[in-house]
Amino acid sequence: MFWQSLEMNEVEAVILAMNDPEAKIISTRKLRESGFGGLIVSHAMYEDIAQRIQEAGADRTYLTMSEAGAGLAENVSRELQAPR
């Protein structure tokens, strides 16, 4: 099977960037069940999904829209401070 065939000895971190929330939950669970002890990071659109991903074993889950909004605000702040 796929999960048993993975060679994760050298892998330090996994970023789960797929769109399907269930795929992220299943992938996280399978990684942990296979003994992966590295960092698992994911994104989610909604807080309840982020919580489910973390409950499955992810170390960090970022709320996509919140992070996008924070990045946008940071960029606007830099633009406002730049000479015109």
Topology diagram in text:
Layout: H1 2-5, E1 13-16, H2 21-33, E2 39-44, H3 47-56, E3 60-63, H4 64-81
Parallel strand pairs: 1-2, 2-3
Helix pairs in contact: 2-3
InterPro entries: NAD(P)-bd_dom_sf
Which features would summarize this protein structure in a list?
54% helix, 3-stranded parallel beta sheet, 84 residues, Rossmann fold, alpha/beta
Please give a structural write-up.
This protein has 4 helices and 3 strands. It has 84 residues and is an alpha/beta fold. The protein has a 3-stranded parallel sheet with strand order 1-2-3. It is elongated. The N and C termini lie far apart (59 Å). InterPro entries: NAD(P)-bd_dom_sf.
Strand content: 15-25%
How big is the Rg?
16 Å
Strands of the widest sheet, in order across it, are: 1-2-3
Provide the number of structural domains: 1
CATH top level class name: Alpha Beta
How far from one another are the termini?
59 Å
The coarse overall form would be elongated
Percent helix range: 40-55%
Give a count of the beta strands, DSSP E runs of length 2 or more: 3
Mean pLDDT: 89
Under the CATH scheme, the architecture is 3-Layer(aba) Sandwich
Query: The CATH topology is what?
Result: Rossmann fold
CATH homologous superfamily (4th level) name: NAD(P)-binding Rossmann-like Domain
The number of helical segments is: 4
Question: What is the ordering of alpha helices and beta strands?
Answer: HEHEHEH
Unreliable stretches covering 5 or more consecutive residues = none
Based on secondary structure, the structural category is alpha/beta
